Amino acid sequence: MKRSVATGLSYGPQATAGHAERAVETALSQAGLDSANGVLLFLTPHYAGHPEAALRAAARAAGSLQVVGCTGAGVLTEQEWLLDSPGAAAMVFGNNLRLGLPAEPGPEMIVSLCTPSGATADWFDRPPSRIGAVSGDVFGQGPFKVWSGCRVVDSGRVETVISGIHGAIRTSQGVRALTTPAEIMEVHGYDVLRLGQSPALSVLIQSLPVGVREMERLPLHLIMGGVTFGDPFTAIRDGRFRLNHIVSANLKDQSITLSHPLARGERLFWAMRDAITAERDMRLTIERTHEELGGEPEFALMFPCMGRGPHFFGNRDRDLDLLRAAFPDLPVLGFYGNGEIGPADGGNHLYQYSTVLGLFRALPA
Fold this sequence. Notes:
The protein is of the alpha+beta class. Helix content is about 20%, strand content about 40%.
């Protein structure tokens, strides 16, 4: 019996167009299809300078010009993750499933991919739900490429709808809360001066584990603020917060400079990145996404931050391990990016240090 979705992965010492071709051919073979209605194709950064030959090879192998994707710091399927070698990961769609442009009335959800320069706020702040990530590389310097219809898109962002599916999307932010949410009483743009009645830096230092607090230099890359929305008393438990990473701690005025500006009256808690907490949170995210889907998934899309993948978990992608354990043989496609796109608070949000997961099943024909 022909399957509607399958994946393929190919890699080697050189960034050749053959990897894109073999990834698509492998996926078609797994699905039992002769051709595809569309292909999601993710390439490693080695292709970012000139991906055109790989796109044409993928289109020829698929028998379709509907090739959509981008370059990422690394790529993954249910079979394996790839960070250091040149390669390609592809997901093919057949039978009643197709890739197309968003149209009115609005779709249930949109697969959204962009370069850092294409990640504008107006793209995120309105429904429908989006799932995707920002094209990345190990150093965050580029070049970055996105493509649609088998062509590189100069605007730096693409979107596609997978027709004939129902899906559920959730985000695992995977941090350990160090404090409860406190009201921001004094803030100047990016600089938070007072949380409740205390200086922001004082609240942070007092909340840190003793071993971290006594370090000569605070590991600010592991510490961040969580900005809650909705009921602050249940926001952490329910995952209703957005991470805002720390740029600097300022001894002179006891303030904390964050990467995004905040407003007086918002609620903020301090949190720390922790592999054990992240693993526990991902397991819960998989369970809740499955419940929300209301049936067994037929494929998954997963977009981890490049700072959340194997380098964070000790040369294993525990997010992918947990997903494979929950759904053996489920086709999975994704890439490691510079930011993760997922729904939040009635709109969409660009997450950091997180993993966005989408589970999908085909609608009845």
